[in-house]
Amino acid sequence: MKRSYCFVIALQILCWVSATSRPFPPNDGVGVHQEGPGQNPESLQVTLQEGLNTINGVTKMAAIPNYRGIAKIGSSPPSCDHKCYGCTPCEAIQDSCPSVKNILLLDSEGKRVAVKYFSDDWPTNGAKLAFEKSIFTKTLKTNARIEAEIMMFDSNVIIYKFIQDLHFFVTGGDDENELILATVLQGFFDAVALLLRNNVDKREALENLDLILLCFDEIVDGGMVLETDPSIIAGKVATHTMDADAPLSEQTITQAWATAREHLTRTLLK
């Protein structure tokens, strides 16, 4: 009995020595940032292979415990100010995401109420004004008050919708999905309606211009679509402006200065 027991122990020791002296599997071009000790190299390699997903040529990683991300050996991600997930370059993410070139809000005469550009296709203010005038003229006689309309102009897809004396526009590249652009437009349109309590006209828009400008920031960042749900957009905008309604005596210097600047902007636009 003792001899049999010793044989089992010896066999276990032999297996342990064999496992610890086994060489690492050949590298297939995938590097790993390891945070947790005690990982089996062979099982780790299989786990990473199962965690990789390639979408439109962009390598992404499914959630794997104890690991920050993956990167191909011999390549380093470009410098980036954004907090990217794992090691995926921002340029690769942006190429695979829908993008918007501009969001425009014009009045019934084609003049600016609030606009924001996210593309360098119009490098000067004159080029931007000419673009706004052109699309306003081309869409003036269309009926886009019940449902959004679409048109192609200068290699761009433009989705637009009218209400009262305001004209809403969203522009994307000719390779962008029209449904996504329409969703962005509808999200902006409905968020403005929520913030203005359904009094959507030029006067109300100018009096609440700060809310509309904040909508731009919540919907799109650098051309990338962040949010299209109008209730979420309006909720975030309302959170940003909540402190501005407090008395000046209860505000910090920065908050008081921002409030004064908003009041001055509204006065100049009236």
The side-by-side strand order for the widest beta sheet comes to 6-5-9-8-7
Treating each run of at least 4 consecutive H or I residues as one helix, how many helices?
A: 9
CATH fold type of the largest domain: Beta-Lactamase
Mean pLDDT across all amino acids: 71
Subunit structure: Oligomeric complex that consists of at least the alpha, beta, beta', gamma, delta, epsilon and zeta subunits.
Protein name: Coatomer subunit zeta
InterPro entries: AP_mu_sigma_su, Coatomer_zeta, Longin-like_dom_sf
Membrane topology: Peripheral membrane protein
Summarize the structure in words.
With 270 residues, the chain is an alpha+beta fold. The chain folds into two domains: 71 residues, no CATH class; 168 residues, 2-Layer Sandwich (Beta-Lactamase), CATH 3.30.450. The chain is built from nine helices and eleven strands. The strands form four sheets. It has a five-stranded antiparallel sheet with strand order 6-5-9-8-7, sandwiched between helices. A two-stranded antiparallel ribbon has the order 1-4. A hairpin with a 2-residue loop joins strand 8 and strand 9. It is globular and about 90 Å long. The termini are far apart. The relative contact order is 0.08. Its main location: cytoplasm. It is a peripheral membrane protein. One of its GO terms (cellular component) is Golgi membrane.
